[in-house]
Amino acid sequence: MSENALDPRALNAESSIGPEDAPEARASWIVPAIIGSALLMLTLESTVMSNALPAIAHALHEEPLRLNMTLTLFLLASAVFLPVSGWVADKFGARRVLIASMALFAVSSAGCGLAGSLPQLIVGRVFQGASAAMMMPVGRLVLLRTTPKSELVGALSILTMPALVGPVIGPMLGGFIVTYFDWRWIFFINLPIALVGGILIRLFVPNITEAQARKIDWIGVLLTGVGLAALMFGFENLGRNVLPPVQVAGLFLLSFACFGLYARHARGYPDAIIDLAVFRIRSFEAATVGGGFMRIGVGATPFLLAMLLQVGFGMSPLAAGTLTFVSAAGALFMKGAAPPILRRFGFRAVLLGNAVLVAVSFGLYALFTPTTPHWIILVVLGVGGFFRSLHFTSLQGLTFADLDQSQMSRASTTASMVQQLVQSVGIGLAATLIHFVQLYRGEPQLTWQAVSPAFVVIGILSLVSLFWFVRLPADAGDELNRRSPA
User: Fold this and answer.
1) Is 16 helix (H, G, I), strand (E, B) or coil?
2) Exposure check for the chain: N or C terminus, fewer CB within 10 A?
3) Is 346 found in the same domain as 238?
4) Contact status, residue 310 vs residue 54, Cβ threshold 8 Å
5) DSSP per-residue string spanning 47-67
6) How confident is the model over 155-182, as a mean pLDDT?
7) Mind listing the pLDDT tens digit for each residue in 432-455?
8) What domain count does the chain have?
9) Can you give the residue range of the structural domain that contains 221?
10) What local confidence, expressed as pLDDT, does residue 332 receive?
């Protein structure tokens, strides 16, 4: 395979790149950096949104906990539309799909900014999630098909670098906007980012297509979409007294039935939208299923910190954003350190040790009180962000370590779908835990004492991932790290 990351000869034999996409004049870091601009828009949106939830709730005259729907339904829409992203990219070309999805994201962001009620805001967020579903897996698919495995960890680090700028500036930017301007500008800032990103994608990203795209599995799309929607609405209404308990239980049963029917359907259908066979690859299973338990906590943390610092401690959005940005700064600092750490210790050792450190960091957040010195909060959040980012980079690399090129498209879709699902579960679980603690304590208003126990629960959940990591071989993913056998 050619050392040039964009050499057409490095692609799957069934893939095609137009002559205008000749890569000789382009450095190997340009494409992952440009694709990362789409991730910048997504991560900036999510971190700004999380920090602005209490202010938006006040402006729309809603309870802060109800605003978790704007986060969970965004992720749910992403998960529902993710299964078709790989097929759409193969059919119409990755570059066209990326540009179209960025344009739709910009339009739906403008719709969110013009919303006058919570239902209108939710509709805009659903369209945002649908367009976001095409960005990450399609962008990552371009990278996977144009990068030799020996360079994949470095390329993934470059890919996520721009995306990490969002969490670094997002909390403070969101706090500044809602403190001194109108919350609607947190959506309008996406418009120039989408414009610049679309232009760069048009100029530099190859329009990878499949010579013969597989047939779309509409039965699989229907079963997975209904199953995910039922699961998330079940979590959303758990213990809320909005739906009768029998109907909530029915949602969970419907979800499990759809997933069971899909598993049966996929076994006998070669073009199934989600390739369940990739879960038989131990590295993919560990990174996707095992790593999912850590991603539950990662999905819940921004929401929990916003509730803890702003509603519980009474901080302004700007003050809370100034504290939480340190977590993302720690993650950004780690990115350059990840490849040498993985080369030195290997994926298995890093994931085993780091899982414990991530769980401890979640537990430490539960010890924050209104009297905790801010410098201690800053240090704990920064260190926690460092180790969570190392975990993310390790999981991303391990996910594709042992896959063939022919498996990349559907495996990328499957991994992204699971990631979106577990993060949305994390937010729904966090809101449900807070609700139950409030009921147990008999508190009519949200307090910090109702938020803190949720950090302990997600920390314990993240340790479940050790069951998968400990079964990995010692040399798992060494081809990506260029490690020599011990």
Assistant:
1) strand
2) C
3) no
4) yes
5) HHHHHHHHHHHHHTT--GGGG
6) 72
7) 888 888 888 888 788 888 899 999
8) 2
9) 217-272
10) 66
Cβ-count burial 326-359 (b if 16+ within 10 Å, e if not): bbbbbbbebbeebbebbeebbbbbbbeebbeebb
pLDDT tier at 134 (50, 70, 90 boundaries)?
Answer: confident
Question: At 483, phi and psi to the nearest 5?
Answer: -85, 145
Both 197 and 93 in one domain: the answer is yes
Residue of 302, 353, 349 lying closest to 328 (CA atoms)? 302
Based on the fold, state whether residues 323 and 440 are members of the same structural domain. Answer: yes
Name the domain boundary from 272, 292, 318: 272
- Answer yes or no: do 237 and 374 share one domain: no
Share of the chain above pLDDT 90, in %: 11
Where among 249, 272, 295 does a domain terminate?
272
Tokens representing residue 165 in the block: 């700028």
Question: Residue 308: CA atoms inside 13 Å, Cβ hemisphere, count?
Answer: 25
Residue 374 falls within a domain, yes or no?
yes
**230 and 366 together in one domain:** no
Q: Are residues 49 and 160 in the same domain?
A: yes
Q: Confidence class of residue 381 from pLDDT cuts 50, 70 and 90?
A: confident
In a domain, 2, yes or no: no
d(CA 358, CA 462): 8
Residue 27 has pLDDT above 70, yes or no: no
DSSP string covering 277-288: GGGGSHHHHIII
Model pLDDT for residues 33-87, shown as the tens digit of each residue: 777 777 777 777 777 787 788 888 888 888 887 787 888 788 778 777 877 776 7
In angstroms, the CA 390 to CA 387 distance is 5
The answer to whether residue 10 is domain-embedded is: no
Cβ count within 10 A of residue 94: 29
Q: CB–CB of 37/198 below 8 Å? A: no
Statement to judge: residues 223 and 310 lie in one domain = no
Tally the C-alpha atoms within 13 A of residue 250's C-alpha that lie toward its C-beta. 5
In a domain, 1, yes or no: no
